[in-house]
Amino acid sequence: MPLLCARRVSFAYRDRQVLEDVSFVLDAGEVIGLVGPNGSGKTTLLRCLDRILDPEGAVFLEGREMCSMNRTEIARAVAYVPQNGGVSGSATVFETVLMGRRPHLRWSVSEEDKQKVSEALSLLGIGDFASRRVDRLSGGERQRVLIARAIAQDARILLLDEPTSALDVRNQIEVMDLLRRLAEERRLAVVAAIHDLNLAARYCHRLLILKEGLVLGWGTPSSLLSGEMVRAAYSIEASVKDEMGVPYVVPLRPSNNDDPVKIE
Amino acid sequence: MITDTGRQEYARLTEKRALFITSLILILIALAGVAVTLGSADLSVADSYLAVLAGLFPDAVDLPDRMIESNAVGIVWGWRLHRVLFAIAAGFGLAIAGSVMQGVLRNPLASPFTLGIASAASCGASVAIILGAGFLSGYLVVGNAFLFAMLAAGAIYGMARLRGMGSETMILAGIALMYLFSAVTSLLQYLGNSEKVQAVVFWMFGSLDKSSWPKLAIVTVVVAAAVPPLLWRAWDLNALAEGDETAKSLGVPVERSMAGFMLAASLVTAVIICFTGTIGFIGLVAPHITRMVIGTDHRTLLPASGLVGAVLLLGADCLARTLIPGTIIPVGIMTAFLGIPFFLYLFMRRRDA
What we know:
The complex is a heterodimer of chains A (264) and B (353). Chain A is 32% helix and 29% strand. Chain A has 264 residues and is an alpha/beta fold. Chain A has one domain: P-loop containing nucleotide triphosphate hydrolases (Rossmann fold), CATH 3.40.50.300. In chain A, the strands form three sheets. In chain A, strands 6-7-8-3-9-10 form a six-stranded mixed beta sheet, with helices on both faces. Chain A: Keywords: ATP-binding, Hydrolase, Nucleotide-binding, Translocase, Transport. Chain A: One of its GO terms (molecular function) is ABC-type vitamin B12 transporter activity.
């Protein structure tokens, strides 16, 4: 049984349709990259998958329809890392990551909770500034804190909205590598909205390409990423090379051909 | 091994919080003893505690003759103790309500003042004093102040529901209401005669002069009923402080929680300020002072802010009664004189650090 199954998920903000009939399945051990231009519905899809938004269609968590679950049950199964933010000013790193334990604890903090926080901090390599205030961290460090909080949440599905956007190249690789290891070693499922196609191609098992709320493509990076697909999604000309079995996209120029490209 | 530093630091922070709360309780007990001695009849701190105990356990406490002759028990229980306890209950409740509002709305300026609740109470009191109109005959001022305050809270909630519950919506709705109620109060003052306007102004200063055992009982019951559920949901407040989206993803039913928190905080505020007048300052500053000392975990922030609020209000009342002999300065003014320098000191010291 897949960990997560989205069936014909649609969402509209008032009269503006943002997602339409998005369907896919997510298995344990898998990293899925959500790619597509700005405004294509990536963030909205992540919010629908965590039921922060209430979409049409159905989302199943291990076979159970999400709308029959309460918020705490969802939070035990799904962790969400929003883009740029979601941390309060003056809390320490340890306390912020401890917040990830909220769906599991009642009032007091157990040794197990603290252990989970320590592990998450250690995994993200931020253990040595656990006592620093979050508002005194750099953007990249803060991003790691947010990911650590999601890991401390002990959920089997991680949803991340542009987890690498605030990071330098080395940190981008480290974080994506960590997400992939977590998925494979702990049998988690990861869905990450990513702008960098090459990062997505290298670390994701499959890609879901969105454009204007519709699924433009769904498959492995090497089966999906081609010059035509990149043109269809982003309206740019690009050369796609093979780099040790992984597609490598070199953007060339804006496309002059605005005709929609038919993708089979 | 590296991450053990985080756990050790957290353990140290937990100890610091427990120590802070214990110290505040001790300070409050000592201050209450001093507060009971204040007044025309001369009683020492020890006499005050003895008189309190004699009232509680008349058969067990052997009072010295001089205390029996001076009717110390009667003075303490009849005149002084309810005022002291009222200051504690009111300071505790206002500060907790302020903490909750600042936590839910993620805004350091959120308080009963900035959300229009205090202005609504003033407006209600003004209607009662100047127009003589109100809902509860016999308790016109108190009844109006309470109902107008709850009306404002209801209006904020209603507007937020219509526009989608969010901290910005609530704050903007609150500020709009504050100006509206202030305008109505100003209009009433403009139209009213000088004697009544003076009464309104005095009410708005905030004072503990009208405390009594029945009023203390009402405030205590409401605060005692509201605080345990607030404390029980402290993790939700912690999560809400990180944003609605994050709170939802951490399992908090955001809209329902926000409504519950705001209702409880408004009720506590309304029931206190309808008896005291507007002492809004405590609700703004006590949470800040506490946060600067022990951080943002609402499990300890709520009780500790309550205790800071109680110490501030009781301390301010003591000073208000003794600073100018023969004159009692309204406690609402005194809390600002006492609390703001302390707050600024902490604020500047923290900046330097």
